[in-house]
Amino acid sequence: MAAKSGVNPAISLWTGPLGLPDFATIDDGDFEAAFAAALPAHLAEIDAIANNAEDATFENTIVAMERAGELLTRTSGIFWNLTGANANKTLQALERKLAPELSRHRSAITMNRALFSRIDALYQNKETLDLDAEADRVLERKWKSFVRAGAKLNPSDQTRLAAINERLAELGTAFSQNILADESEYALVLETSDDLAGMPDSLISSMRAAAVERSHKDGYAVTLSRSIIEPFLTFSERRDLRETAFKAWVARGESAGARDNRPLVAETVKLRAEKAALLGYESFAHFKLDDTMAKTPENVRALLETMWGKARDRAAEEAAELSRLIAEAGYNHDVAPWDWRHYAGKARAARYDFNEAEIKPYLQLEKIIEAAFHTAETLFGISFRKHDGVQTYHPDVRVFEALDANGERLAIFLGDYFARPSKRSGAWMSEFQEQHKLSLGHNNVGQTPIVVNVMNFAKAPPGEPVLITMDDAKTLFHEFGHALHGMLSDVTYPSISGTSVSRDFVELPSQLYEHWLTVPETLQRFAVHHHTGEAIPQVLLDRMRAAEKFNKGFANVEFTSSALVDMAFHSLDPEQAANIDPMAFQAKILAELQMPSAIAMRHATPHFAHVFSGDGYSAGYYSYMWSGVLDADAFKAFEEAGDSFDTTTAAKLRRYIYSSGGSMDPEDAYKAFRGRLPSPDALLEKEGLA
Ligand SMILES: [Zn+2]
User: Fold this and answer.
1) Which of 45, 479, 507, 558 is catalytic?
2) Which residue in 34, 494, 598, 647 has a CA-CA distance of 20 to 30 Å to 220?
3) Neighbours of 647 (CB within 10 A)
């Protein structure tokens, strides 16, 4: 690629070790010039394709589009990873500026009439093109994505749709930045030993490290990172402190003033309803689901409602048990949301003789990372080689090379495991570079993926091992499952690479991977005590397994209520969505559902980033449960084979699920792996709710 004037070549050509960008020579200020050059360069390429005097062919139109925009792809690849994992004021200011610009850029492409008429001509005549299955799928996906983006609308509707998209992009960025600000500013600093009553040493260490990171000379910080707030709510004996911390946690995004997400939600819901109507759909949920495995809101509701009734009944039984424990402890109060985790922990201890703190000494972050690698080695024959001293965007980031069975480089994997104030909460996988096999100017062999897992584990003090909870370990396996979906991708075209699949299919590779954390082969070898090196005792595992069935009512109520509220917001028509008060609407939906008062939504509306920080999981939070049906059933294939690592089943899993990206229809891909589609029974059984 020719150097564009003013563009730092470290952004346009990745010349660092292992094909990474040379992060040392990239300044935050460089991105503005890079985007300023990349956007018009991409549009010029698109115009050349649209105005090509030759008739449209798959090669001169679809493949040319797949190749176009390399500078934009490279700049975006670095920039969006940084805004998530290592943001600062400069990057955030540019992020706000870019959100509407990029939206306009996308509209300029999808609403380019000359371009769409070429795509449409190919699509209408696709039987005559003699395409292979993957190319055929790319053409179909491209055509559909243009139609869904408004390619067939009349010019005035297109103008309105472009304006809506632009505003939605601004709203999503502001929503996300507000949450990050609320999270990074908050810390409840505890000072006396009285304040620490009930808390295990490992949590106290993590809170000390968090206090130091936030420049508190003394004390212990309760932050809103899940790795700290959840164990704090579980272990702290101080009901007053639990209440304070819990209320801060659930109030993210809801503070009056400049960072208030509530008006942003109201406007987002209204604009999404209008957008869906412009595109000819009853509601935004109908629009979104039309391009998923679930297909309709009715199918989604059927699954969620099946779960809701069972989960709520189970949660009522659990609440009764917690009330008994509160009374036994000599208190006279109802179960409040800041009590639930605490007494659920006690109930587990009482009923199953199990305390989460007993497990933690066996769960060393380093060993669990090894376990995730080892599982991939056993299932797929790949291996991981660590590269020390490679500079990335932050010193905490580790760099690995993934090698296929034949020793060839399959991917680069970055592990960014620790919380810091510049990082969004939660855990995710994303890519700097995605796998494909197209030739691009300077690179004629396609490209290997560069994948990152970002997590928010609490650091241990220097010299001590980082111990994590079972939930943290599951999160690590979950995100590594997504990472494998990117790393094992084996397709020709970028637009269907890796995780570019239907939203309700994308959680299958990740949730399925969690199953291998708790198989005996993994735990015996990797869940070893950090002092003695002894494997976790079988009796402790048995008690943990039994205890896992407890609190499934709570977990499913937390999740399903959020998914149902998401569906409710996005099932409104434009008239219903106008002038909505998001908190009143949320309260109304929860009242209709008879939401238990002792349980809060897993993500309340003002910080429901899955749904409101962008389009991603809007009318799509259900996807975890939909994929849950798939993963529960998919793991049964290994159980039926009598071996959690059965090679024949693993080979099919790699081929149809982890490697095929979006090259197959998700239903077809699942059937190719399993021979049939699943029913929800396996999930209900797994959750103990059958
Ligand atoms: Zn996931």
Assistant:
1) 479
2) 598
3) 13
